[in-house]
Design brief:
By secondary structure, the chain is of the alpha/beta class. It is 23% helix and 26% strand. The protein is globular and about 70 Å long.
Length: 490
C-alpha cells in the first residue's frame, strides 16, 4: 500500500556559471510561474539583459509537485497539470536564452543608489560564490510559504507526523515517501481537499477533514471529498495533538462563535499523520534590508509574493504585467526602446481571468433526493449545476453545461493524475495522467496499477507509459521529464 522510502534525491549542484558582471536591465528573483512569466515578458519585449535567480535546483516553483490538473484553463484553454503548466513557461524562457542561476540564494536587495540602480546580494555556485548583482529593475517573485503548526499555536506535544500539506505533497509526489496511512487534514481550502484525495488514492485512510468554514471550490469538494466519501466537518478545529516520538492521534472539537472550543463535545481521532493546510503567507524577507529605500523605484512585486492567488493563471498573468512594468522602468533609465509584448503574450495579459466560481460557502445546503450537484469543467467558468435524472438541469450558462451534466449523470468520469516509479532516474518518480477521463469507479484500479508500475529512465513528457492502464482503455501518459541518473541538473 505505502510508497517505498526514497534513499535520497539526486540533486547535484547547478552546473554552469552565469556572467554577473555589468548591469542587468531586470533581475527576477524566483523561478516559479510568476517569475518565469515576468522573465519571458522582459526578454520578448525588447533588447533587455535579464537574469532569473532561483534558490531551488529546478525551475517551476511549487508546480512540479502539483500533479493534479486544472491549471491553465484561462491562459491555454485546457486543463494542464502543474508540471505541464510549468514546462510551457520553462521552455519559453529557455527559448528566449534567459540565463537562470539555480541554487542561488538572495540575501538582500539594496538601493536604489543615486544612479537609480539596485544592488542584489546573492550567493550560489552558479554565481561563482557570493556576488553583488547590479540592476535597473528587480522583480520579487518569491512566492509564499505555508502557515505551520507552530504559527497556529496548536497545543500538545511535538511528535513526528505533523506536516504542512505542501510538505506532504512534495513527499508523496516528488520524493516517493509516504508520510502515514491514517491521516487527518486540518483546513478545508483547496490544497487540503486536494491532498485528502491524493492520500486516499495512494492507499491512506483519511479519517477526517476539518475546516472552520466552507472555503474550498465546489469542484474540489465534489471531486476530492464527495467522490471518495471522506468525512468532513465544517465549524470544527484541532484542540490538541498527542504522541511522544510519533503522532498517535488528535483531539478535535466544534468551535463556538467566539472562536473557542466546545470541549464538552470533543472527540479523539487516532492518526499517524496530520496535514496542516491553514493558509499562505507571502515570502518577502529578501526585502527586509534597511538599505532598501521605502517604495524603492525599480522594485516590483508579483505573484504570491504580492498576495496569494487562487489560480496559477492569475499568477502568470500578473508576472507578465509586472515584467513589462520592470522593462519599462529599465528602458527609461538606459535609453533603450520602450517594451512591446509579442501578440500571444499580449493576448494573455488582456484576458479576463476572474475569481473561481462556486465556493462551498456560496452554495446552498443539502439537496433533495435524486438531485446531484455537478460542476462543469467544459470551460473556466465552472458553473455549479443541479441535475436530476428525471428533471432538468439548472445553473448552467450555456447548452454545453447541460450536455456535460447529463453525461455526468449517465457515467461520471474523472481524469486520473498521479505518479509512477522510475528506475535509474535522477528522481524516483515521474508525474502521469490518463490521456482521457476514466470511469469514476475505476480510479482506485488505475491508482493501484500506477503503484505496481516502474519505468526505466529517461522518460519524456508526453511519453505513453502504459497503453491500456488497468484495462480502462485509456493510455497512461507522462506529464513530466525524468533524466537518467548520469545526466546533469534538473
Amino acid at each position: 500500500m505505502g510508497k517505498p522510502v526514497a534513499e535520497g534525491l539526486d540533486l547535484p549542484a547547478a552546473k554552469g556559471r552565469v556572467d554577473v558582471d555589468g548591469v542587468f536591465d531586470v533581475v527576477v528573483i524566483g523561478g516559479g510561474s510568476a517569475g518565469l512569466a515576468a522573465a519571458a515578458a522582459v526578454a520578448e519585449s525588447g533588447p533587455y539583459r535579464t537574469l532569473v535567480l532561483e534558490r531551488e535546483e529546478y525551475l517551476g516553483g511549487v508546480l512540479p509537485q502539483c500533479v493534479h490538473d486544472g491549471f491553465g484553463l484561462y491562459l491555454y484553454g485546457e486543463p494542464l497539470t502543474g508540471p505541464e503548466f510549468a514546462h510551457r513557461w520553462i521552455e519559453r524562457v529557455r527559448g528566449d536564452d534567459v540565463p537562470t542561476a539555480l541554487a542561488a540564494t538572495v540575501l538582500s536587495v539594496e538601493g536604489p543608489s543615486a544612479d537609480g540602480l539596485l544592488r542584489i546580494d546573492a550567493l550560489g555556485a552558479s554565481l561563482g560564490g557570493r556576488a553583488t548583482l547590479v540592476a535597473r529593475s528587480a522583480v520579487c517573485a518569491t512566492g509564499c510559504r505555508e502557515r505551520t503548526r507552530g504559527a497556529l499555536q496548536i497545543p500538545g506535544g511535538r511528535p513526528a507526523g505533523v506536516l504542512t500539506a505542501g510538505s506532504a505533497q512534495y513527499m508523496v509526489n516528488v520524493a516517493n515517501q509516504f508520510p502515514g496511512d491514517k491521516a487527518v487534514v486540518l483546513g478545508s481550502g483547496d490544497i487540503g481537499l486536494i491532498m485528502a484525495r491524493r492520500m486516499t488514492l495512494e492507499g491512506a485512510e483519511v479519517r477526517l477533514v476539518l475546516g472552520q468554514e466552507a472555503t474550498g471550490l465546489v469542484r474540489n469538494h465534489i471531486r476530492c471529498i464527495q467522490d471518495f466519501d471522506i468525512p468532513l466537518r465544517y465549524g470544527w478545529g484541532l484542540a490538541s495533538v498527542h504522541g511522544y516520538g510519533q503522532l498517535q492521534g488528535v483531539t478535535v472539537a466544534p468551535l463556538r462563535a467566539d472562536g473557542s472550543f466546545d470541549l464538552a463535545r470533543k472527540e479523539y481521532v487516532r492518526c499517524n499523520v496530520l496535514l496542516v493546510a491553514c493558509g499562505l503567507v507571502p515570502e518577502r524577507e529578501v526585502l527586509d534590508s534597511p538599505a532598501l529605500a521605502p517604495d524603492a523605484s525599480g522594485l516590483f512585486l508579483c505573484g504570491n509574493a504580492n498576495v496569494p492567488h487562487d489560480l496559477v493563471d492569475q499568477v502568470a498573468q500578473e508576472g507578465l504585467r509586472t515584467g513589462i512594468a520592470a522593462a519599462a522602468h529599465a528602458a527609461a533609465l538606459s535609453g533603450k526602446p520602450a517594451p512591446a509584448l509579442p501578440d500571444d503574450l499580449a493576448r494573455m495579459v488582456g484576458l479576463s481571468v476572474s475569481e473561481p466560481k462556486g465556493r462551498m460557502g456560496d452554495v446552498g445546503g443539502d439537496l433533495p433526493a435524486g438531485v446531484q450537484r455537478i460542476v462543469c469543467t467544459v470551460c473556466p467558468t465552472g458553473c455549479v449545476m443541479e441535475a436530476s435524472e428525471h428533471g432538468g438541469v439548472t445553473g448552467n450558462t450555456c447548452p454545453r453545461g447541460e450536455e456535460f451534466a447529463r453525461r455526468e449523470l449517465a457515467c461520471p468520469t474523472r481524469m486520473f493524475t498521479g505518479t509512477v516509479a522510475v528506475a535509474g532516474g535522477r528522481r524516483p518518480l515521474v508525474p502521469v495522467r490518463t490521456e482521457r477521463p476514466v470511469p469514476k469507479d475505476r480510479l482506485f484500479d488505475v491508482a493501484r496499477a500506477c503503484r505496481r508500475l516502474s519505468v526505466q529512465a529517461p522518460v519524456r513528457m508526453g511519453e505513453v507509459l502504459e497503453s491500456d492502464v488497468a484495462r480502462t482503455g485509456a493510455a497512461l501518459v507522462a506529464t513530466g521529464d525524468c533524466e537518467g541518473s548520469a545526466h546533469g541538473a534538473l
